[in-house]
Amino acid sequence: MLYIIGLGLGDEMDITMRAWYIIRNSDLVFLDSYTSVLNVNSKALEEFYGKEIILADRKLVETQSDKILDPAKKQNVALLVVGDPMFATTHSDLVLRARDFNVKVKIIHNTSVFNTIADTGLSLYNFGKVASIPFTDDKWEVNTPYNVLKENKDLHTLFLFDLRPEKNEFMTINQAIKFLEDCERRLAGGLIHDDLFLVACSSLGTDNQQIKAGILKELKTMKFRKFPQCLIIPGKMHFVEEQMLELFK
């Protein structure tokens, strides 16, 4: 059996009791170390779960998944995922591969950015399509996040950020704002400007979470030191949403 287990967003204590029991009784435990970042290291997980943790990088999960799936034919194997397991297509692909290996899969869910953004006071019902902002290193132009914002119109737009855990690089709110400003210069759609109202979030779902609402020219001068970070551009807001965001100005 392969168990794909969400760890939540905080530390080793955020796991569910069901997941903790499964991990304790697993023969192999892998930790997805590239789709997001947890606020504790693998040693803290090992001490709390009482199991050795095998770090699974992008190559292991995506192109060498047989190293996870082969043992799961006869043993209980757990793959730990920061947040909730099934929001990344990587893990959906793993489920499909498991079917080809005749391996049974059970998903254990947990908290993710997609429900903790409700802490901003913005209604989850009013969010449109999510966009991811990539590292580009100025080597190529990517306009998709800008186009998603345009398509969402009056709906709120959540921007998730790229990361390179192997290099200890995590995109910041400041970098994301610059990315959107660069898109505006290329596309001139009038969507991104100094007075645009934004909601910046860091380390959501943890004791150190920070939420700041304000206009672009103010937020891009601020430093958010915790990760992961994300950005929301609100669309048309209900008066209750507006009142809630007043708490974060």
What is the topology?
Layout: E1 2-6, H1 17-24, E2 28-32, H2 42-49, E3 54-56, H3 58-62, H4 66-69, E4 77-81, H5 89-100, E5 105-108, H6 113-116, E6 131-133, H7 144-152, E7 157-161, E8 163-164, E9 169-170, H8 173-187, E10 197-202, E11 210-215, H9 216-219, E12 229-233, H10 239-245
Parallel strand pairs: 1-4, 1-5, 2-3, 2-4, 6-7
Antiparallel strand pairs: 7-12, 8-9, 10-11, 10-12
Please supply descriptive tags for the structure shown above.
249 residues; alpha/beta; Cobalt-precorrin-4 Transmethylase, domain 1; Methyltransferase, Cobalt-precorrin-4 Transmethylase, Domain 2; 2 domains; 5-stranded parallel beta sheet; 5-stranded mixed beta sheet; 10 helices; globular
What does this protein structure show overall?
- This protein has 249 residues and is α/β, with parallel strands linked by helices.
- It folds into two domains: 110 residues, 3-Layer(aba) Sandwich (Cobalt-precorrin-4 Transmethylase, domain 1); 135 residues, 2-Layer Sandwich (Methyltransferase, Cobalt-precorrin-4 Transmethylase, Domain 2), CATH 3.30.950.10.
- It is 31% helix and 20% strand.
- The protein contains ten helices and twelve strands.
- The strands form three sheets. Strands 3-2-4-1-5 form a five-stranded parallel beta sheet, with helices on both faces. It has a five-stranded mixed beta sheet with strand order 6-7-12-10-11. The chain has a two-stranded antiparallel ribbon with strand order 8-9.
- The longest helix has 15 residues.
- It starts with a strand and ends with a helix.
- The mean pLDDT is 93.
